Amino acid sequence: MSQPDDPVVDVFIDLRSPYSYLALQPVFSLAKRSGVTFDWWPYITDFRSAYGGEVEQRSSREVSKLKYLYMDCRRLAQQQGLTIHATTKLWDAALASQAMLFAKSMNRLWEFCHPLLAAFWQREFDLESAAQIQAALISAGLKASDWHHYLEQNAQRDLTAAAERAESMGVFGAPTFVYRGELFWGGDRLELLAERISNTNQ
Predict the structure, then answer these.
(1) What total of structural domains would you count in the chain?
(2) Greatest alpha-carbon span in the chain
(3) Is residue 19 part of a domain?
(4) Which domain does 117 fall in, by range?
(5) In a domain, 149, yes or no
(6) β partners of residue 40
(7) Cα separation, 53 vs 57, whole angstroms
(8) CATH number of the CATH domain containing 189
């Protein structure tokens, strides 16, 4: 775990979170201009609790809230030239999150995540498909044999460790940025994070 004095931002994203997806470009821009290292981790949000259970169980109020959320995300996506379509189910993100950790360990995180997320938000990627996830890893330059070994030996351990890391830092949603022990939740808090980084680097 990074120490409070280390110039590192821990970033927790949920692959199923449109706001996590929309935060990526601004975060890369901030990382480039600040020179601070951003350390990326998967975070699996409890969407069932947050948004009223399964799709068919949601109240009219929860449905209205989600409709607004996706309308808001589409507006924000247009500003970045991105496409976001509302998801049709509550996806299980465990396997994809394990693949994210594997790609990160092999220094191919964004070669894996970028095309996966672009396809997912256009409804062209099955986040629960072992075959599609493996194909995405191979397209990112990784070996299927290494991925299978990781699945057998380290995947669940590393995903549990990432969840414990998030809990130890007080993370409760995604995207969340943790810098010197201070939390910034949501892409709309990046300017505050940038200000904090600037102040501590002076």
Answers:
(1) 1
(2) 52
(3) yes
(4) 8-45+92-201
(5) yes
(6) 11
(7) 6
(8) 3.40.30.10
**C-alpha to C-alpha distance for 197 and 191, rounded to whole angstroms:** 10
The DSSP bridge partners found for residue 38 are 9
- Alpha carbon dihedral 150, 17, 27, 129, in 10-degree steps, equals 30
Alpha helices of the chain — where are they, by DSSP H?
18-34, 47-50, 60-80, 94-105, 109-120, 130-139, 144-153, 155-169, 190-201
* Distance (Å, whole) CA 101 – CA 109: 8
What is the C-alpha separation between 50 and 62, in angstroms, rounded?
A: 9
> What pLDDT digit, counting tens, does each position of 61-83 carry?
777 877 888 899 999 999 999 99
With respect to residue 53, please indicate whether it lies within any of the assigned structural domains: no
CB atoms closer than 10 angstroms to residue 108: 16
- pLDDT for residue 2 is more than 80: no
Please give the DSSP secondary-structure letter assigned to residue 175: S
Report pLDDT digits (tens) over 31-49. Answer: 999 999 999 999 999 876 6
Cross-strand bridge partners of residue 10: 39, 178
CA distance 31 to 195: 13
pLDDT score of 1:
41
In a domain, 65, yes or no: no
Whole-number Å distance between alpha carbons of 17 and 11: 14
pLDDT at position 69 is: 86
Is residue 180 left, alpha or beta, with left meaning phi > 0 and alpha meaning psi from -120 to 50? left
Alpha carbon distance 14, 176 (integer Å): 10
pTM: 0.89
